[in-house]
Amino acid sequence: MKLNIKTQYTCFPLWDRESMDIELETYREIVENSADAIMILVDLNIVFANKTALEIYGADKPEDLIGKNALSIGLLTPAEHGQSQEIEMKRISGDLSHGIFEFPATMKDGRKAIFEVGISNIQFSDKVGALCIIRDVTQRKDSENRLESLHDSTALLGQATTREQAVDIVLDTIQSIFGKHYAAIAFVEENKLVFRKGLGKNIYDELALDGPGISVRAVRTGMTQVVNDVSNDPDYVDGRVSDVKSLSELDVPILVNDVPVALITIEEDKTDSFNVEEVQLVEILANHFASALERIRHHSELMKMREDHIMELVGGMDKICMRVQEDLKGPLGTIRNSSFIIRHNPELTAEVVDNIDNSIELMTNTLEEMKEITSPTEPEKAITDIFSVLQGALHISYIPRKIKLVNDSETGFLAISVDKEKIQRVFFNIITNALEAMPNGGTLHISHEIQDKYVEFSFKDTGPGIPPEVMDRIYDPFYSTKPKSLGLGLSFCKLAVESTGGKISIDSVVGEGTTVSIRLPK
Fold first, then answer.
1. Pair type for strands 403-407 and 442-450
2. CB atoms near residue 67 (< 10 Å)
């Protein structure tokens, strides 16, 4: 297809006409063979399309596109049709002369894609047409999304307090980056590689470290193993429980002080599945996982050592020290990991700063909670949207994927006079208690009721419930049924809520669950 360009030769010397024809032909070749799709639309009808545009639309020849409405044969969803029409109306009215827009699309072969479209006005046959330069940015967007998933997992790993939490975060990240694949986390135990959790089923729960296996080789060598075709690797052990066979495998050892302690393994049902970028992302994830495991191990050992030597006389003070140390380690780990990201990915600085701010807020709230128990202070009331306070508490809470959160109070606005920091800490403590009551999964239902003089929030879990003998002492400072808990959480909640003129109540049925209600005056 050649552009129908009318040329006025009268403004050029006769001897320049040949040069001008050559130059115009060069321009045509550049446009036709551009790596970007180039189209000209007049009233959303296609009047020109280069070769790349034909390829995108799956057209065999220009006539398949020319003269047709771009939306009627397009790849866009009806929602994007509306956006396209809005842009066209602005362009026609003169409100838009140029701009760059993104459109998600579904290709002819079913592949999801994202296109970046630069639109500018162009004079075409006495009309103002739209010159569209279309670029497929799907790969760039995929990379950005993967980096974002890795960034989110880094912050979560910095807050993980158990090995199980860290494993869940890593598997969630792998699924987010790669989609639905077979993946597993294994730990080195004695002379075996024990598979603790995974996406998909595996025949083998463990492999001997002196036997075959690409995973075993990764642990023995302490080096990443990328096998693009497992049929050519004599160490491959087929453990898939499905009709789908693995054809490529990626194994990344988790090293703590240069010693393999665990492993991330990912398998795919096609050859050459793992490119350089994907391998690097998994290796970065493995480094963060290693840091989290070491921090959790050290924390557990320190907690056990302290609890073994605790004395009745100084038990309260000793527990306070441990609680502060436990609560501050997660935020400090997040800040440390955020610093790592800023140094290696400076373009993510703005996003990482939010995690640093949240960590500092957690640390400040922890210290304020300790102070409130030992020396209660008057609440610093201010007019605050109570729903945003609840969302702030949920934002800094880690909700495991096995917990279903039903939040009927996700949206809304109600300004009341409260101490924002104290009440957010109250919500955070109650949410944390509910999650800890459901280690094997369950549902946390958050709802609210607004009356003339108060608003009441309810937090209902499906945990085991609280026995009557425990209910009698539930607000006592330093009393807890959890050995590693300080027992100040509900004591602080009661003081904070009542100091603002509110009321806290707990209703629990053994075997069914617990409901905590917070009533605050309007």
1. parallel
2. 10
pLDDT higher at 284 or 481: 284
The tokens for 156 are: 């979560």
Q: Is residue 283 over pLDDT 90?
A: yes
Reported residue count of the chain is 522
Stretch (H or E) spanning 5: none
Max alpha carbon distance in the chain (Å)? Answer: 107
Residue found under tokens 């904070």: 496
Angle between helices 163-178 and 276-308 (to 10 degrees): 170
pLDDT > 90 in the chain, percent: 33
CB 332 within 8 A of CB 359: yes
- Beta strand 45-49 with 415-418 is unpaired
Q: How confident is the model at residue 321 (pLDDT cuts 50, 70, 90)?
A: low
Between these two residues, 128 and 310, which has the higher pLDDT value?
128
Tokens representing 62?
A: 């220009």
Report residue 202: phi and psi, to 5°. -130, 140
Cβ–Cβ contacts within 10 Å for residue 205, how many? 11
- Please give the angle made by the CA atoms of 438, 462 and 158, to the nearest 5 degrees: 30
Q: Give the strands of the sheet with 503-509, arranged side by side.
A: 403-407, 442-450, 454-461, 513-521, 503-509
Give the up-direction half-sphere exposure of residue 235: CA atoms within 13 A in the CB hemisphere: 19
**pLDDT for position 306:** 61
Which domains does the chain possess?
A: 34-136 (3.30.450.20), 141-299 (3.30.450.40), 376-521 (3.30.565.10)
Question: Which backbone phi and psi does 132 adopt, to 5 degrees?
Answer: -115, 120
Interhelix angle 349-374/138-159, rounded to 10 degrees, is 20
Question: Within 130-260, where are the H helices?
Answer: 138-159, 163-178, 214-221
What is the DSSP annotation of 419-470? Answer: -HHHHHHHHHHHHHHHHHT-TT-EEEEEEEEE-SSEEEEEEEE-S----HHH
Residue 278, classed as helix, strand or coil, is helix
Token pair recorded at residue 460: 């209902």
Dihedral sign computed on CA atoms, order 99, 102, 106, 108: positive
For residue 422, how many other CB atoms are within 10 A of its CB?
24
Contacting residues for 423 by C-beta, under 8 A, at least 6 apart: 386, 389, 496, 497, 500, 520
Q: What is the pTM of this model?
A: 0.46
Residue 97, judged by CB atoms within 10 A of its CB (0-12, 13-18, 19+), counts as exposed
Tokens 């023995």 -> residue = 220
CA distance linking residue 370 with residue 187, whole number of Å: 37
The beta strand positions in 37-111, using DSSP E, are 37-42, 45-49, 98-106
Query: Quick check: 15 pLDDT over 50?
Result: no
Query: Taking Cα atoms as reference points, which of 235, 332, 222, 230 lies closest to residue 283?
Result: 222
